[in-house]
């Protein structure tokens, strides 16, 4: 006959495991919500970050890597799948020329996003912000092409909008990480170091996101 303690353990241990998992999951989801509420498209942000198994994390640094990494696949899908499909239905020579030029612009984003990803990996958030701004500039240049005479609505606006949203997610996370670091510095008493560069001085990967 099993002892009362053994029976109690059988009941309590699964409950403790369930509670622990619930707390961790809630913390992970809370971070995602805080980031995505600051993005320009909350639902798109959640769908992108949750499409990666590493996206469910309560560590802001890791979430930043996920957001930038996911951009590679989405940019590839846009440039090699969505835009060619749009081109099939475009007969206007001006629009076709503009779309092809945009394809070149978007193709150049790989280099910027790779540099942004590497910068995020070393927590060089000033450098990451510069690369993300350069990437967004390329998208803006693409959109501007359709505003020049003869002005037409961009047939690939949904594609460029998607990439803008991607860049925005990474930008939001980068800003929040820097904000969290500055908050910790301001509340710490004599931390014993002086920061001259975000990348070389940020060593705490577990910083919480600030409201």
Automatic annotation (TrEMBL):
Keywords: Disulfide bond, Signal. SUPFAM superfamilies: Plant invertase/pectin methylesterase inhibitor. Gene3D superfamilies: Invertase/pectin methylesterase inhibitor family protein (1.20.140.40). Residues 1-27 form the signal peptide. Residues 27-173 form the Pectinesterase inhibitor domain. One of its GO terms (molecular function) is enzyme inhibitor activity. Belongs to the PMEI family. This is Pectinesterase inhibitor domain-containing protein. It comes from Quercus suber. The lineage of its organism: Eukaryota, Viridiplantae, Streptophyta, Embryophyta, Tracheophyta.
